[in-house]
Every structure is written in structure tokens, then in C-alpha cells.
């Protein structure tokens, strides 16, 4: 057997961590979104928590119209019982799989339109953003 490659793994341990009392706690920003800043002492470090109060406007709520069906438990039972009554014998007359699928889909859609017709509803699309305070640990 011929060796084609050699791998070497060197694991070094270090028992020290980087620390510096000369590092500066900063909050960098791009724009006029910051209304005020402050800092809080950190109990486990020589750094501080930086707090920024941001001025971000909540976007207006929007309305979205969608089509839906009433697929309640009762309607599902009715749909299932009517699907069981579909006569699938005519599917043998179709030549290709697309025609067969179209037949099955149309039969089920007819039942769904009869039991639970499509209806349009309007949803209020609201954002969950109500302002925020971000805390950075520097």
C-alpha cells in the first residue's frame, strides 16, 4: 500500500484569555436613527453595556385580500363522503396521465366548491414592531 497524503493535527491549549482595559466601548451607526445612548457597568468585565434608543417608525398596517375555504371538521367529513362516491371508471378512457390527473382534480374541486366554496377575506397585515431598545455588549 502506498501513502498518498499525510495529515498532521497539532492541538495547542491556551489557559489565558484576551483582556484589555484600554479597549474602547463603541456604538457605530449610519444615519439619524439614534435618539440617545447610555451605558451600564458590566459586573463581570471591565467593559460596559451600551444602550441606544432608536427612532424607527412603525410602518403602516396594510390590508391583504386572500381566497380561502371553510374547511371545518363538518365540511371535511362531507367532502370525504362525497369523494368516496366519485365514479372513477371514466378515467380509463383517458390516454395520458395529465388527462387522468385533470379528471381527478376537477371531480374533487367540484365537490370542494359545492361544500366549501372559495370566498375572499381581507386580512390586516400588521407588524409586530412597536419600538425597541438594543443592548450591545462591547
Q: Going across the major beta sheet, what is the strand order?
A: 1-2-5
Provide a count of the helices.
2
Q: Which stretches are low in confidence, meaning pLDDT under 50 for 5 or more residues running?
A: 5-13, 130-138
* Strand segment tally: 5
What this model shows, in words?
It comes from Brachionus calyciflorus. This is Endonuclease/exonuclease/phosphatase domain-containing protein. This protein has helices spanning 73-84, 97-115, and strands at residues 34-41, 48-54, 62-68, 119-125, 133-137. The protein is an alpha+beta fold. It has 2 domains: 30-69 and 128-138, no CATH class; 70-117, no CATH class. The strands form 2 sheets. A 3-stranded antiparallel beta sheet has the order 1-2-5, with no helix packed on it. The protein has a two-stranded antiparallel ribbon with strand order 3-4. α1 (73-84) packs across α2 (97-115). The longest helix is centred in the C-terminal third of the chain and has 19 residues, at 97-115. The protein starts with 33 loop residues before the first strand and ends with a strand.
Features:
alpha+beta; 5 strands; 138 residues; disordered C terminus; 25% strand; 2 helices; Endonuclease/exonuclease/phosphatase domain-containing protein; three-stranded antiparallel sheet; 2 domains
